[in-house]
Amino acid sequence: MDFGRVEDPRQRDRIDWSLPSLESAEERAQLERLARAAARDPRPPRLRVGMPVWGEAAWIGRLYPKGSKGTETLREYARHFDTVEINSTFYAVPPRATFARWRDAVPEHFRFCPKLPQSISRSVAGALDTRELEAFVSGALELGDRLGQCFVQLPPAASPACLGELDALLSAIPRALRIAVELRHEGFFRERRLRPEIVDFLARHRAAAVITDTAGFRELAHASLSSTRALVRFASSDDPAIDDRRLRDWAARIATWFASGLRELDVTLHAKDPLAQLTMARSLSTHMNEALASRGLPLSVPVLETIDERQRALF
């Protein structure tokens, strides 16, 4: 994820990496609303952790057996993670047969999170263009019960003045698709939170809020919930020590959400260095399991093991 990336270490050291407090009246009201919604939702809670890709060459020989390629890498990926973003759909919608092949390569608990095509999401900032929507919906539904949250990533140019177009888009998407929305214009935020009227707007459409924790736009780490589900996209700072502290804070926040009634969360980990992604996954699972256990929650995240670690465990 290049959006919000800060490469200068001197700038990075001046960033406030903290998450918004839960102590404000606005946040307390959000947790109360979450608890009320959860009381009407009988589903068991689901926490999934994954990446924005599965075919990463740097993971072959470390996470995947040597020689893995094509659909084999997806099968291996699904042994370690239980969700993945499909960012390729942002650029072109593949044939339905491709979606079906992906579906058949993963276990029942796995979920795909496809991104709506840019031809649709970017048009929200101008004249709405939904010509690719039917193809996207058809392909996404081919994933069957492996379909997770679909997300709309609005461009920074899409301001609150474009809510009419966003309203039309969300109204056009079938209810069979569970939508999450990533907002990138500063006008949607106030004091590092989504404005209450925006949270209400998303809630009316049964849309979750995408929360993107990236260095250069701290408002996107707003931690606002409009649904009993959410999608968190975590972008590395390029500093392992900073990332470990941030992931610890996220683990505590996520445990609080689930204790308050959150039903479903996908967390995806982004980094320029693909090996750093594996370190982040291990860090998050460690902190997450500690935070969940401290609250007595019946959830856990598998701890990532590389091929070398699995082999050493045999001796």
How does this model look, in words?
This protein is an alpha/beta fold. The chain has one domain (43-312): Alpha-Beta Barrel (TIM Barrel), CATH 3.20.20.410. Helix content is 37%, strand content 15%. It has helices at residues 9-12, 25-39, 71-80, 96-104, 118-121, 133-141, 163-172, 196-204, 240-260, 274-294, 307-312, and strands at residues 46-51, 83-86, 111-114, 149-153, 178-182, 189-190, 193-194, 208-213, 229-235, 264-270. Strands 3-2-1-10-9-8-5-4 form an eight-stranded parallel β-sheet. Helix 4 packs parallel to helix 6. The N and C termini lie far apart (39 Å).
List the helices and strands and how they pair.
Layout: H1 9-12, H2 25-39, E1 46-51, H3 71-80, E2 83-86, H4 96-104, E3 111-114, H5 118-121, H6 133-141, E4 149-153, H7 163-172, E5 178-182, E6 189-190, E7 193-194, H8 196-204, E8 208-213, E9 229-235, H9 240-260, E10 264-270, H10 274-294, H11 307-312
Parallel strand pairs: 1-2, 1-10, 2-3, 4-5, 5-8, 8-9, 9-10
Antiparallel strand pairs: 6-7
Helix pairs in contact: 4-6, 9-10
Could you provide a short overview of the structure?
The chain has about 325 residues and is an alpha/beta fold. It has 11 helices and 10 strands.
Key terms for this structure?
315 residues, alpha/beta, TIM Barrel, eight-stranded parallel β-sheet, two-stranded antiparallel sheet, 37% helix
